[in-house]
């Protein structure tokens, strides 16, 4: 049985994801001082121009991978950018994990971004462990939170712990399984991990609190591994990332319950982690991590086999094998050269643009993973060059950035202006800033008369007829696939009705 646990944390901004990440890494011994995750992030952010956007907005656009070990289990934590605007990248990262922790602010409950990310997890049956954070502060009553998770997300909830009081009355967190209470002792910055048997504290509880605890224990479904793994039930933990309560229980729960690497869909088939060939897929490409090198790192989620450094793998987009001499495992402290990797691991592969999001890598070039969609853009803009002699550079830059998944690019059948599409506004700012900083191309964006786009497929005759009628609203994407640029959602519906033989898709799988 694999000892890998590959997971992500999903949350609404400010719920405490960064703080929790830090504490998980501390527990795993990957970092030694709280605050390092943030500090590292800031140092990295200061590096290049486009990253200034992150700094100004206080958000993280780039995502990374952190690997740590604890009690013989290797955890791969994939960081997902938390900002609402940058969801496409986040969606793709969630295709590379086997489970997720959902962090909720105990005073706020389920927020918009939590819900969106949860829906993505549900689409892929990604099992979720819930962590209700900030119980050291005055929050909402226990049952209100539990019922909200159950109702808002249509999930069974199975509490595994309960806070003894909240805010000023907070006495610690009771862990149901061990019947121990993790109690606050020492200063607020200090964590002594003092535990007391619940029996010692029980008599001090108010009648109301004792009743509440009892109800939390017996009033909800018992934990059921199958229901959790199929995404129908979430175990709920309570704690404080800041004060380090309930974090140990959380990581133990992942080690014990979270699924080891799962089979991945490849068309009609599934590739199991014990398939003996090395296979994987690229879920993210990040350029210019080091501004002195124009290299990029492709992040591959390994699906099967045992990878060894120097191995040759064939990317589906390229068709011929490449040797992987300097793969990178993203340990929390630094980048490290990896010698071997297993199913479930993430490998960073430096390259010069040969690897693209959605590519499958395999030894025999006989497998194609599916399920990594491009999403139809919700914002479309024309790109206007300030210096018309830079057409070539612009095209190269747009191709590069679309490969990375920062934007999507569309080349209209009529007219010369390129159109870029994004899911969120922030991507446009990143685009302009990176065009200027990295490609020395000054460009502006102007409104395009389109509201969304659909990939079109169908029988040849119907396609030709459709193309002849709609030339002014057609474009090719980066792969040369036909895209219908729609003036409104109504326009999409109209064309669908008029062309029953054609399929108009809001997502495209490569
Ligand atoms: P995010 O990554 O999900 O956006 O959240 P982050 O960890 O940055 O936490 C957001 C704020 O919530 C931070 O405060 C953080 O200290 C606080 N916080 C996180 N976990 C807990 C908790 O368990 N209890 C309490 N009381 N607060 C918590 P900030 O003032 O915005 O930032 P900072 O100046 O403290 O870094």
From TrEMBL:
Q: Which InterPro entries match?
A: EF-G-like_DII, EFG_III/V, G_TR_CS, P-loop_NTPase, PrfC, RF3_C, RF3_dom_3_sf, Small_GTP-bd
GTP-binding as a keyword?
yes
Q: What does this protein do?
A: Increases the formation of ribosomal termination complexes and stimulates activities of RF-1 and RF-2. It binds guanine nucleotides and has strong preference for UGA stop codons. It may interact directly with the ribosome. The stimulation of RF-1 and RF-2 is significantly reduced by GTP and GDP, but not by GMP.
Taking every annotated instance into account, which residue ranges of this chain make up the domain Tr-type G?
2-262
Tell me the first and last residues of the signal peptide: none
Q: From which source organism is this entry? A: Pontixanthobacter aquaemixtae
What is its subcellular localisation? Cytoplasm
State any GO CC term.
cytosol
Q: Which keywords fit this entry according to its UniProt record? A: Cytoplasm, GTP-binding, Nucleotide-binding, Protein biosynthesis
Please give the name of this protein.
Answer: Peptide chain release factor 3
**Sorted alphabetically, which SUPFAM superfamilies does this protein's record hold?**
EF-G C-terminal domain-like (SSF54980), P-loop containing nucleoside triphosphate hydrolases (SSF52540), Translation proteins (SSF50447)
| Positions bound to GTP | 11-18, 79-83, 133-136
Q: Which family does it belong to?
A: Belongs to the TRAFAC class translation factor GTPase superfamily. Classic translation factor GTPase family. PrfC subfamily.
Q: Which GO terms describe its molecular function?
A: GTP binding; GTPase activity; guanosine tetraphosphate binding; translation release factor activity, codon nonspecific; translation release factor activity, codon specific
Q: Does the keyword Isomerase apply?
A: no
What NCBIfam families does this protein map onto? prfC (TIGR00503), PRK00741.1 (NF001964), small_GTP (TIGR00231)
Cite a single Pfam family from the UniProt record.
GTP_EFTU
